[in-house]
Write a structure and sequence with these properties.
The chain contains two helices and 26 strands. By secondary structure, it is mostly beta strands. The protein has one domain: Jelly Rolls. The strands form six sheets. A seven-stranded antiparallel sheet has the order 1-22-19-24-17-14-13, with no helix packed on it. Strands 2-3-4-11-6-9-12 form a seven-stranded antiparallel sheet. Strands 5-10-7-8 form a four-stranded antiparallel sheet. A hairpin with a 3-residue loop joins strand 20 and strand 21. The longest helix is centred in the C-terminal third of the chain and has 12 residues. The chain is globular and about 55 Å long. Bound molecules: manganese (II) ion. The site of manganese (II) ion has 5 residues, from strand 5 and strand 10.
Length: 292
Amino acid sequence: MKTKSIQQILPPPAPHMVGDGFRVHNFFPSGYDMHIARMSPFFLLDYNSKVDFPGTDTPRGVGVHPHRGFETVTIAYQGKVAHHDSAGNSGVIGEGDVQWMTAASGILHKEYHEKEYAKKGGLFQMVQLWVNLPAKHKMSTPKYQGITNEQMGKYNLPDKSGVVEVIAGELNGIKGPAFTFTPIEMYNARLKKGAKLILNLPENFNTGILVVEGKVKVNTTEDAPVDHFILFKNDGETIELEALEDCILLVLSGEPINEPIAPYGPFLMNTKEELMQAYEDFNSGKFGVLED
Ligand code: MN
């Protein structure tokens, strides 16, 4: 098998606030001069690197807003977030958990720090991904998957040197619980210093790794420090990782969706006409109702 070689190791772009609760580095689509479909099916990666929020009685977050045409996936590393949407789904996720929300035909939702966490304050670290949907699923019924850490597949490395939590896809026979519309591999690799992990991912899958904690040597040659994103070329299957410190690595890999992309604000469609329709439907109340 051929090595999937490194295209670039990207430092975190300057952060911006999303609402008042998320201070994020946008690696794509706007952080770097990358093609809009470079990481397809992943359209957007917002990374809230560690922030220490002071306690407050008014939870920080983002108020009611719409989405259509894709999925939002939130992965919690530190802190807790609460979610409510107009499809009637809600949930709280904390350290190690994931919420996978399929906006598809359209929902309103709000995302806030969970009340008790907000009151006490403390470290906060999260990832939000926007996962695109193919045309035939863009208008599917909205759906919500709350995935606790317990429910994830666990691949244990030899000699207790680490564990890989499989959120979606399959690693060495261990499957992840997330339902996905297109083939996606998504793991949190928690590696102890010195641990080695080999990944085999299809050559055509767009692949990147976010270093959430620690420092990792990739393909025996390059070191990637914390908060950096490693973008891989589509030139092979094998990635070799060696933890230079205790690490948490978010592995993202997926089959590209080869369709036109029309993004605007909170909508992600195939054509301009569909975007206009999305605004029309949103403005005429077709996305339902959600109290602020
Ligand atoms: Mn949202």
